[in-house]
Design brief:
The chain contains eleven helices and ten strands. It is α/β, with parallel strands linked by helices. Bound molecules: ligand C2E and magnesium ion (3 copies). One of its GO terms (molecular function) is cyclic-guanylate-specific phosphodiesterase activity.
């Protein structure tokens, strides 16, 4: 209400909202043709064994090469796609690209590592989700444990029969991991309810750990607890060597972050693999 007196402020705010709405609409208008025109591309960010400096896997991350706007990042469109349901097509597009990649490497007798794909919460309330997961893994005859589904803690905690869904995905030999672990409100419950292969400690914990002994203790105990339960731990967002050193000192050997590699196009990933 105060802002009404400041006319320039109102104009600014108005333009800002209009602009946001225009971009939102534009993205929705373009999404389908963008998929048809192959503007979506899967990047790969390796996960490292920090002690051995070796690649233990990778995460598939979507990019949109808009011929006019340039590259669009997931933060520009994932929420929009979740609202309008297009995320289902995008996530299955990514999964299929990953399957094709693994299949071609296997056929060529080349080295493969497990690849993880991000799965929106939206799938968990879709009737045919598990069926489609089964169809795609069979279509490409992907060996057991080569594809990991990353679901955020918040997504998992919203759905009642999530255990049932994830048990079925596990029976299809997908690996299951919790993404952004520690940012939701039910971390401990999740460890108990869900058939987990891995957790990914959220990047914000690592940022906080630089200045907070308490946060370092929390990370240490989470790692210890996960390992005691036979769950792999990967820490996200490792940017500095001292963060890697800290993680290794508490027994967390697996890390992902700009210190090792940014997400990169498939050809670059194959080269370093
Ligand atoms: P996420 O799954 O937690 O992925 C990690 C994000 O952190 C990626 O951002 C990655 O580029 C970034 N990152 C990795 N290491 C570092 C680091 O050392 N420092 C910093 N500052 N950032 C780092 P990206 O690719 O922009 O993706 C953002 C989010 O968008 C993802 O978070 C994921 O939630 C979502 N997303 C990306 N691709 C897909 C997809 O295909 N499907 C769905 N449903 N969501 C996706
Ligand atoms: Mg992820
Ligand atoms: Mg994450
Ligand atoms: Mg994160």
């Amino acid at each position: 209400r105060e802002a009404r007196n400041v006319s320039s402020g109102i104009v600014f705010f108005d333009d800002y909202l209009k602009d946001k709405l225009r971009v939102y609409k534009h993205i929705e208008e373009m999404q389908e043709s963008a998929l048809e025109n192959h503007e979506f591309e899967v990047y790969y960010q390796p996960k490292y064994n920090m002690e051995e400096n070796s690649i233990i896997g990778a995460e598939a991350l979507i990019r949109w090469n808009d011929p006019v706007h340039g590259i669009r990042m997931p933060s520009d469109f994932i929420l929009i796609f979740e609202k309008n349901g297009f995320i289902i097509q995008i996530d299955f597009f990514v999964l299929e690209e990953v399957c094709k990649f693994l299949r071609s490497r296997i056929d060529a007798g080349e080295k493969v590592v497990p690849i993880s794909v991000n799965q929106s919460r939206v799938h968990l309330s879709e009737k045919h989700y598990v069926q489609r997961l089964g169809e795609i893994i069979r279509k490409y005859s992907i060996p057991d444990g080569l594809i990991e589904l990353e679901l955020t803690e918040t997504a998992i905690s919203e759905i009642d029969d999530v255990e049932n869904i994830l048990n079925q995905a596990k029976a299809l030999n997908y690996r299951i991991s919790i993404d952004d672990f520690g940012t939701g409100y039910s971390s401990l419950t999740m460890l108990n309810r869900v058939p987990l292969d891995a957790i990914k400690i959220d990047r914000n914990f690592l940022i906080e750990s630089n200045n907070s002994k308490k946060t370092r203790e929390i990370i240490r105990l989470v790692v210890e607890m996960a390992h005691a339960l036979g769950i792999q731990v990967v820490c996200e967002g490792v940017e500095k060597q001292d963060q890697a050193d800290f993680l290794m000192s508490i027994g967390c050997r697996f890390g992902q972050g700009f210190l090792f590699s940014k997400p990169i196009p498939i050809n670059d990933f194959m080269r370093i693999l």
